[in-house]
Specification:
The structure is a homodimer. Chain A is of the alpha+beta class. Chain A has three domains: about 15-190 and about 420-455, Bira Bifunctional Protein, Domain 2 (BirA Bifunctional Protein, domain 2, 2-Layer Sandwich), CATH 3.30.930; about 255-380, YbaK protein (Alpha-Beta Complex), CATH 3.90.960.10; about 470-570, Anticodon-binding domain (Rossmann fold, 3-Layer(aba) Sandwich), CATH 3.40.50. Helix content of chain A is about 30%, strand content about 30%. In chain A, the strands form eight sheets. In chain A, strands 3, 7, 8, 9, 10, 11, 12, 21 and 24 form a nine-stranded mixed β-sheet that branches. In chain A, helix 2 packs antiparallel against helix 6 (about 165-185) and helix 12 packs parallel to helix 15 (about 555-570). The longest helix of chain A has 21 residues, at about 165-185. The interface between A and B is large, with 56 and 56 residues.
Chain lengths: ~575, ~575
């Protein structure tokens, strides 16, 4: 492609309303343009990266035995009423009426439609397993669309749905998708983790999120430095091994701690590490119970673990009035001794002894606290957020590293939720009717490209890995008016095209400074600069965008050298 | 792909609500499934044909210098208000509101969005010409969606928009697209005509429709048997060469024609060919004028030619009351003699003499009519529909053949309609601001596949040409339980996959009769049957779906033979 005949409108300035770097760079590099909030044009350059991502996905899905189809964007209300989601789904489900006043929605996901396909076409266990996928444009009417393609309203997604006769089959389908996803993100050249995710309100027995690692990521995750275990901190288990309780050595004492409210303040005042304190959190649950949770002073509560333990929808900090009622003191002085609430402690508290707790009175703390001597704890459980350095609960050898990640894919065992409500059954080998066991598997296509940019950029622009870069090679023709420069550039361009290389030729009549700035911004991985000075020595310059490495190569060697690099990248 | 792991739900029965053959066959061959009126799932087999069509389009568009992008389905009302189409577009434009009550529509076409892209990114004539295209899902809320993919509501379309500095440039862009479209439909292996189309109310100086020829086509077209001229009969010119008028030989006579109303009846009654009659049509125009049109008795009026001549939006047969007023008689007896209306005659009437016309009275006709002796004709013009056998108005050598066609593509010179209303301008080489001259170019992707089926099928099923067939080769494994048959089939399958051939292996445990019926229905062009009997002689059977040709080939020769056939087809 010739730059002069292409539409690649780069921007010098950072657009005002773009908050995150991928959004800024995709706008500046002419990859996307906004049409409305959360709705974008994929400009030619951006579409190329999108299509490459799609093709990697397609190849790996096919290799895993999934079958491609395409379902419509406009979904009739009937199917969503049947599943019950017409009512339950919030305003993200954009509902509309056609000219005959029939109700439709824009498909934000396609469980209903795909379940309808399968119940109408699959009758026997012999047609299973079946995994149908599509790469399709979806619409979710986000209340606050932002971050460009990261959280758009209209977006391209790969969604797949597996159908099996039983749980064992569904688990195999799940594992295939898990492996396909690993292959996909590996082939994209991205650093990522497959993390165990909390499956939240949707239910289902297991679920992994695929996270592209990037400092700007919304999600906090931990991964083991020695095995494959990785999890969202909301889900990550904390290893606790049975240990003998430490015998009490200190006496219980109520001490004055004037104007010391936070853990840090109290610890400093008493000249103790925060780990010697135990904090008492007073919480309310969706079941209208009040519970007190004990946690080592330097730890954070994982409210999802607590909610799961209590089998409630949510837990929240108790209101001031409730705290006063339970503790007899204002917020900030809660302690477990003499407290009028169920007492649940994190496992870590089990073996603690001689610790500090709140005194249930203003400016008072107990020191030298021991259980069960001074208080009775009703229940111990894994309640804290995992942290960097925690031992791995899976291999028990490694330790947690912590990362920020951007969720780009999700694999999910759905079970029979949809097949039961929508009566999607098959006959098994005994002639018995059985509900299909489903799984669902999504990848945000544009989101992955955006996440790849979050992970791979510098202050000058994109540094996309070769498999996702819109072009593999950029040939910069310095001074197109120089006949020799023009000829050499055109020759290289023609040879690269001939070799099947994706190449952009910057044949614009622009100053070198502008060409180099645009080159860095757009960040095509391999850049060849053809200039009069180099040609005098019979050389052109090769610059590797990711490493910054630069070298002069003889004219005759440049095309083979590029082809070799590209072939080598394909193999890894 | 293995049939046993694929989703290919064929149907024995013709679905009740499918009127046209392509719709019936696409349902029966498991290519599509209905979700709602005019909204379909593309099932795996159907999607393969769609994707092949898309890829042919993409390659030819790229070759012609067009640049691919992707615009959104949800279009903000503002852009459509700016062009004026928010108000003007009928109910086919599906309008909806988002959760914040902002107005949107589902894009039925993308002139507004693409013009917005270009006015924001193109500043100088040096960035021109530019042709942006997309392959995208569109929505038009048809009042009567029907015929499957032929007239759906949600459908896949390739739309392209060219931008040039001036008319001369726009004409070159148009020609490039015209040629690209010829290449596309040729590569699809379809019989088609590029016909000059009436550009209707949209304006624009030229326009061609690409018609796939099929008996079931909605459009009547004529094409020259000797040159490339082809046109919709609504548009086709009728050649008229100046000839000397025939001198009157007969006297004017008013005769009784009791109960003879139609041209056929009167001609038979008078024992004359219909070509000796001249019919008088009384018409009303959108400008509220009443005109009378004279046409040879065996010809049809082309109302579009008449409307263009009169420069009105439409002409319609006059209501009974008007006819009575103008002719003094009921409908069916109108004649030009003594008529109170403007008289316009088709060119063909110029040299007629001694003809028959209505008598403006019940059961009366004039015979021996001559002009200008008996009546004064205000104007002569080309007003009749072209017919088979008419001489070609372009080359003047050939004669018209007539066809039925299905419109699958349209190229259209738009001019400055959108660039002027939306202020899409560039600076020319003099620094002057100029409105961009646009063209637009559409291909219905699913519609083309459906039209290909209308053109290529028999009573047993599809006969799609190789470039559009979902698979190139079908290997039918007769009796999978026979170890030798299974082994030979698997070997052929593996070798074909290795050779890059698109192959479906029918490895189902089904009776041969079912497998052959499905094979004919799905109509994969090259079919290999592997059976125990053939294997005894070391042969398998090759059947060509289109020709029906069958032959036994030695096992060792089958894969090379297939590869050769496919390669040969690729070259044509």
């Amino acid at each position: 492609m010739r730059y002069s005949q292409y539409l690649l409108p780069t921007l010098k300035e950072v657009p005002a309303d773009a908050e995150v770097i991928s959004h800024q760079l995709m706008l500046r590099a002419g990859m996307i343009r906004k049409v409305a909030a959360g709705i974008y044009n994929y400009m030619p350059l951006g579409l190329r990266s999108i299509r490459k991502m799609e093709q990697i996905i397609r190849e790996e899905m096919n290799r895993a035995g999934a079958v491609e189809c395409l379902m419509p964007m406009a979904n009739p209300a009937e199917l969503w009423q049947e599943s019950g989601r017409w009512e339950k789904y919030g305003k993200e489900l954009l509902r509309f009426k056609d000219r005959k006043d029939a109700d439709f929605c824009m498909g934000p996901t396609h469980e209903e439609v795909v379940t309808d396909i399968v119940r109408n076409t699959v009758r026997s266990y012999r047609q299973l397993p079946l995994n149908l996928y599509q790469i399709q444009t979806k619409f979710r009417d986000e209340i606050r669309p932002r971050f460009g393609l990261m959280r758009g309203r209209e977006f391209i997604m790969k969604d797949a749905y597996s159908f099996d006769l039983d749980d064992a089959g569904a688990d195999i389908s799940y594992q295939k998708m898990y492996q396909a996803y690993r292959n996909i993100f590996q082939r994209c050249g991205l650093r990522f983790r497959a993390v165990e995710a909390d499956s939240g309100a949707i239910g289902g027995s297991f679920s992994h999120e695929f996270m592209v690692l990037a400092e700007s990521g919304e999600d906090a995750i931990v991964s083991c430095d020695s095995c494959e275990y990785a999890a969202n901190v909301e889900k990550a288990e904390v290893l606790w091994t049975e240990q003998e309780a430490v015998a009490p050595e200190q006496e219980l004492q109520l001490v004055e701690t004037p104007q010391q409210k936070t853990i840090q303040e109290v610890a400093a005042f008493l000249d103790l590490p925060a780990a010697r304190l135990v904090k008492t959190l007073i919480l309310q649950t969706s079941a209208e119970e009040v519970v007190a949770v004990l946690l080592r002073g330097d730890r954070e509560l994982n409210t999802i673990k607590l909610a799961n333990l209590l089998d409630v929808d949510w837990v929240l900090p108790a209101e001031e009035e409730v705290v006063r009622h339970v503790t007899g003191a204002p917020i900030g002085f809660a302690g477990p001794i003499g407290l009028d609430a169920r007492l649940i402690a994190d496992n870590e508290v089990r073996t603690m002894s001689g610790y500090v707790v709140g005194g249930n009175a203003v400016d008072r703390h107990y020191v030298g606290v021991c259980h069960p001597r001074d208080l009775v704890i009703d229940q111990f459980a894994d309640l804290r957020r995992a942290e960097q350095g925690d031992p791995c609960p899976r291999c028990k050898n490694g330790r947690f590293e912590s990362w920020r990640g951007i969720e780009v894919g999700h694999v999910f065992k759905l079970g029979t939720k949809y097949s039961e409500t929508m009566a999607a059954t098959v006959l098994d080998d005994q002639g018995q009717s059985r509900s299909l066991v489903m799984g669902c598997y999504g990848i945000g296509v544009g989101r992955t490209v955006a996440a790849a940019i979050e992970q791979n950029h510098d202050e000058h622009g994109l540094k996309l890995p070769l498999p996702l870069a819109p072009f593999q090679v950029l040939v910069v023709m310095l001074n197109p008016k120089d006949a020799q420069v023009r000829q050499a550039s055109e020759d290289i361009y023609a040879q690269l095209l001939e070799a099947g290389v994706e190449v952009l030729l910057d044949d614009r009549d622009e100053r070198p400074g502008i060409k180099f700035k645009d080159a860095d911004l757009v960040g095509i991985p391999l850049r060849i600069t053809v200039g009069a000075r180099g040609l005098q020595d019979g050389t052109v310059e090769l610059k590797i965008r990711t490493s910054g490495e630069q070298s002069a190569l003889p004219l005759a060697e440049i095309v083979p050298a590029l082809c070799q690099r590209i072939a080598a990248a394909d193999e890894t």
